[in-house]
Specification:
Order of helices and strands: HEEHHHEEHHHH
Strand content: 5-15%
Radius of gyration: 21 Å
Largest sheet: 2 strands, antiparallel
Number of helices: 8
Number of strands: 4
Length: 248
Amino acid sequence: MLGKLLGIEFHEISMGAEKLFYLGPFPITNTILTTWVVMALLIALAFAVRRRLSIVPGTLQSIVEIVIETVYNLVKNITGEKVARVIFPLIMTLFLFILTANWLGLLPGFGTITYHHVPLFRPPNSDLNTTLAMALITVLLVQVAGIVYRGIKGYLKEFITPPILAPLMAPIHLISELSHILSLSARLFGNIFGGDVVLTVIFVMLPAFIPAVFMILESLFGLIQAVIFAVLSTIYFSMSTAAHEAEH
């Protein structure tokens, strides 16, 4: 509609991921294809760093070590060292995936290279299915961590304490845990999808130097969103294992 009013033609923005082709009975969307690209890049980076490991680190190894150490210290400060050692691989993976996906979506070609009039690539986090999947996995593992660190009785204690208010507290606590899924998924999806829409419109309507400024801001925004997801996930783990850490 906006394109017709301005006399400009550009691809219609869709909230849902667009289907590209089918792999057997399974539809492959542009966000799935981009997710595979992100995974390939991270795997390639891991192999590249692994092959060049040395006591005196090079530039690439130094950058990777700084990122890993920074995220690990953040997780350790929130949860304590014992829990941090267990959950750090998950938090680091989420952070790297979200950050890479966000930054990759800013490269030229996203939204402009098409396949059967459909964008070939689309930022994975602009698809609610992607952010919801990460949120579900995180919240499920938070519950598992609560059971492992606190035992079944300790985990269920929050649902039934005090006993006289158990019929009221149990639903409230359950809703609180489920709200974490919405908090993680909807925030990330809304911010990345909104930024994608803004950039698409700006690139069409405004001179070239203005979109460049917005791309710099979106790069920073993509980093912030990755940090927020990682920090919130860490806080949920900390809350779930708090009783265990207090005992030690």
